[in-house]
Write a structure and sequence with these properties.
The protein is an alpha/beta fold and 371 residues long. The chain has two domains: 155 residues, FAD/NAD(P)-binding domain, CATH 3.50.50; 159 residues, D-Amino Acid Oxidase, subunit A, domain 2 (D-Amino Acid Oxidase, Chain A, domain 2, 2-Layer Sandwich), CATH 3.30.9. Helices cover 30% and strands 24% of the residues.
């Protein structure tokens, strides 16, 4: 690396979205000299991690995913504060729980949802169970919702963070780390770096290679697909919600995540396509009307952005780590759960690098397997 006299990196990380940035930084802090290559810019505009609400809600997500994801989410709630404290810039993080709301016509779906998460809480005693609350208790918990709903669920202990603030803080940390060399607008593939041998392109071969490119890895991981999600960012300081709120919806779970300075992230549609054209009128109307029914002050908010992204997804909608060589790993398939599970995936990869064992992955139900 430049200025260090090192020509052979200990590790190469392909892809600098959420997973790539976390992994590169932790490897460097363990003494690795790390080279990072990303096809895009340092702003992560092309990464699925930029178009997200970054909710850390394992119990809420259990209604639509597997217990392994929930276990990873529980692990992440403990790890995120540690990871955030080590960054050079503060990142918004809160753990006030999640509120689940529904309209009268969706009460049957709400009962089904409540039954699903009750089974999850029973299976995983470490999770605080959901609390069913009436209108008065809801008003005390979320004054902005006083008089608007007669029943709700409160899922204590769940959290959220600021995804874009985190991506920026990770970039700054990587730039400040003398063991890291960043290559933006550098689209590289695994065959450019063969651990243990000189690469065909003349680049010194790394000791380890980690492929974290998301959908950019489809040439090597043919079963990857993109699932489209649309997210709206609204500035609505008059709303006053304090914690993430989910509205039971017949087509997909709609969330409203309050961020600092009166900003709200509203999403997310879930459509089986990799089309990245602008959001459809139907999706936009559904998201905005859902937000309006939660609080009418959203009508006076200002739409800051409507973003569309395709999330990298494997056939079973679960993440996986594959060993494609003795020192080559590819990490993918985080789907809609990137921020919820990234620390668990990170720690499983680091355990393998440090010890060659998979105890954590096995305990969490995370696939770590030969290709």
């Amino acid at each position: 690396m430049e200025g260090t006299g090192v020509t052979r990196p200990d590790s190469v990380v392909l892809g600098a979205g959420l997973m790539g940035r976390l992994l590169a930084l932790e490897l460097a802090r363990r003494g690795h000299c790390v080279e990072v290559h990303d096809a895009g810019a340092s702003t992560a505009d092309g990464a699925a991690a930029r178009a997200a609400a970054a909710m850390l809600a394992p119990l809420a997500e259990s209604a639509i995913t597997e217990l392994s994801v929930v276990r990873m989410g529980v692990h992440a709630l403990q790890r995120w504060p540690q990871l955030l404290r080590a960054l050079p810039e503060p990142v918004f993080f809160q753990q006030y729980g999640t509120v689940i709301l529904w309209h009268r016509q969706d009460a049957p779906e709400a009962r089904r949802f409540a039954g699903l998460i009750a089974r999850t809480a029973k299976a995983l005693p470490a999770l605080a169970p959901a609390q069913e609350i009436d209108g008065a208790a809801l008003a005390a918990l979320e004054p902005a919702l006083a008089g608007r709903f007669t029943r709700a669920l409160h899922l204590p202990g769940e959290g959220q963070l600021d995804n874009r603030g985190l991506l920026e803080a990770l970039r700054l940390a990587l730039e400040a780390e003398p063991r890291v060399r960043l290559h933006w607008h550098s689209a590289r593939a695994p065959h450019d770096f063969t651990p243990g041998a000189e690469a065909a392109a003349g680049t010194p071969a790394p000791g380890w290679l980690f492929d974290c490119r998301g959908l950019g890895a489809r040439a090597q991981w043919s079963t990857l697909r993109g699932v489209r999600g649309e997210v709206i960012r609204i500035h609505a300081p008059e709303v006053g919600l304090q914690r993430p709120t989910r509205l039971i919806h017949p087509r997909y779970p709609i969330y409203i995540a309050p961020k600092p300075d009166g900003l709200y992230v509203i999403g997310a549609t879930e459509i089986e396509t990799e089309d990245l054209s602008p959001a459809s009128v139907r999706s936009t109307l559904e998201l905005l009307s859902a937000a309006y029914t939660v609080h009418p002050a959203f009508a006076e908010g200002r739409i800051i952005e409507i973003s569309t992204q395709a999330r990298p997804t494997l056939p079973d909608n679960l993440p996986a780590i594959e060993l494609t060589g003795a020192r080559t790993l590819r990490v993918n398939g985080l789907y809609r759960h990137g921020y919820l599970i990234a620390p668990a995936v990170l720690d499983a990869v680091l355990e393998w690098v440090d010890t060659g064992t998979t105890a954590l992955a096995q305990a969490l139900g995370l696939r770590l397997q030969p290709c």
